[in-house]
Amino acid sequence: MSPKILYIENKSEGHSGEAWIGYAEFSKSGQTVYFDNKALKKLKGTGISGNHYDIETGEEYWVSGIKKNGEDRHWAGGGKIMLDKNCVDEYLRLIKAGSIDERKYIITAIEKTDKNRFNEMENAEPEFKNDSREAIYWDATRKKLL
Prior knowledge:
Radius of gyration: 17 Å
Number of helices: 2
Structural class: mainly beta
Helix content: 10-25%
Mean pLDDT: 84
């Protein structure tokens, strides 16, 4: 799949978490979105308020296409949206606007993701602590295995 402009919002802090608009890439299956050096995997069920989770931190994210009216934030949320400088022209064309509203957006540089960094994590067989088949999980906060 070719890169696509998406709206991505961190939902770990409710509707006012950090939010971005920028080019994202997808895994072959389309189940993982690679964006700003993150791998966001589609949730199989419903999350608290997200539809993807960061495979390193477990944080929930809302990932969607952009709204043509430019109103991507949840109606109850707030805060400026970081807009990737590499997609400004295409974004303006998509929302049919002449310029960026500086009250709503911050132009920024978004990192390209090294997808190879996540391949091993996503495709690894689970490790087990012992014969009880209790899985070992990575605690990103403490940076250690549990």
